[in-house]
Amino acid sequence: MGRTQVKSLPRGAVDDTALTPRSAHEGILRRQAARESAARTYARALPIVPVRARGLTIEGADGRRYLDCLSGAGTLALGHNHPVVLEAIRKVLDSGAPLNALDLATPVKDAFLTELLRTLPPGLAERARVRFCGPAGSEAVETAYALVRAATGRSGLLAFTGAAHGSNARVLDGTSADTHDGRVVRLPYPQDYRCPFGVGGERGADLGARWTESLLDDPGAAPLPAGMIIEPVQAEGGAIPAPDTWLRRMRQLTADRSIPLIADEMQTGVGRTGAFWAVEHSGVTPDVMVLSQAIGGSLPLAVVVHRDDLDAWGPGAPADTFPGNQLAMAAGTATLAHVRENALAERAATVGARILGQLQQLASELACVGDVRGRGLMIGVELVDPEGEGHSGFSGAPGAAESGVAASVTQGSGRQPLPAAPELAVAVQQECLRRGLIVGLGGRHASVVQLLPPLTLTDEQAAAVLDRLADAVRAAARCRGGGTAAAP
């Protein structure tokens, strides 16, 4: 008789073939916890093991199916494994083209640039230059800062409270409100619910703009900065849209002082907010755009688009190792073209407005929902403690009095923001997961449940997402005594 063949496995590997789906799923999670760094974030909140995905749906190793409203933190404009993206990737693989071409010209890159330039705001498209960097958005932010510093001969950067600009953007490390530190000055970002001046609305936005103007024109302040960077809708800050009038005013303030305006469109771009680029809502044309996430069609890609007269670099400027990801460029071209040709930005505006309206109805019923906001399919639901005391939201930002903005302002809207409830937000996320819905968390207090569904979301899928989310919020509120009556 022949000897029994024993299956040989690499050292440390595990044979899961005889395990049930549930036990295989649990084994993979245990090994992840034992092998990976404690820095992992999404895996802690979402203990799933994806094995298949298509569109809005993910299937886990345990056989469960989920509606994915995280979309790879916004990288999946068309959802998982969209046919046009897969076809574009297969075409490059079958062609024998190099997968990494550094910064060399290739047909794949040429097609990507042609499609990208076709989508840009007109005032920028005619004068655009594109710098491939990356592959992450944080590296694109660093590249943009280096660009405006070289072009202007100045240092320092104006940014806004609540902005992330890439989780590892070293340029924003050690940020300070000290205008004399030569690095980053944080300015108030307007919002209604937690207005830094306690008034919200147009009045709050006007106060923020006046403060910025006073700071720039203060003869005792540091010299003008190399640039100003703005998210048209704050992403990690909690899905907070910038008022269009305020954004136009920032554009005017910077243009009048020859300060390059950098628009961070990493998460807002490619139709996410209901326009192809979020700056188009206000009609603003930035000098620089930082693009990442969805432009790679789910694969790593980051670029900086800027006006030609800012192109101060010459040959020999610092170069990245991975600026030539051909698969990402092909997937990105397919994604950009599909969004443009199928008017998916307009679709995001329509479906997003409907979702916002229904979530605002939920907020009127539940006291634990403090605010619902967003633009297009970039939506945030802020959870609060209905038993806590309201406050004006004004935090006494440094320099307010000195820059001519009164530090004592009453809440003009009549709606007092309640204390943030991050524990409740975590509970809602877990209740969503139990119901087969994946959502993200964000916001300055980690109390905002975020929805970033793909732009291909159907009406039926939107209804299913809303049903599961509303049920999860109600269940979490009951468990934590959040109540069902809205606050007055």
TrEMBL record:
Its EC number is 2.6.1.76. Signal peptide: none annotated. The keyword Transferase applies. Pathway: Amine and polyamine biosynthesis; ectoine biosynthesis; L-ectoine from L-aspartate 4-semialdehyde: step 1/3. It is an enzyme of class 2 (transferase). InterPro entries: Aminotrans_3 (IPR005814), Dat (IPR004637), PyrdxlP-dep_Trfase (IPR015424), PyrdxlP-dep_Trfase_major (IPR015421), PyrdxlP-dep_Trfase_small (IPR015422). Gene3D superfamilies: Aspartate Aminotransferase, domain 1, Type I PLP-dependent aspartate aminotransferase-like (Major domain). SUPFAM superfamilies: PLP-dependent transferases. It holds the Pfam family Aminotran_3. This is Diaminobutyrate--2-oxoglutarate transaminase.
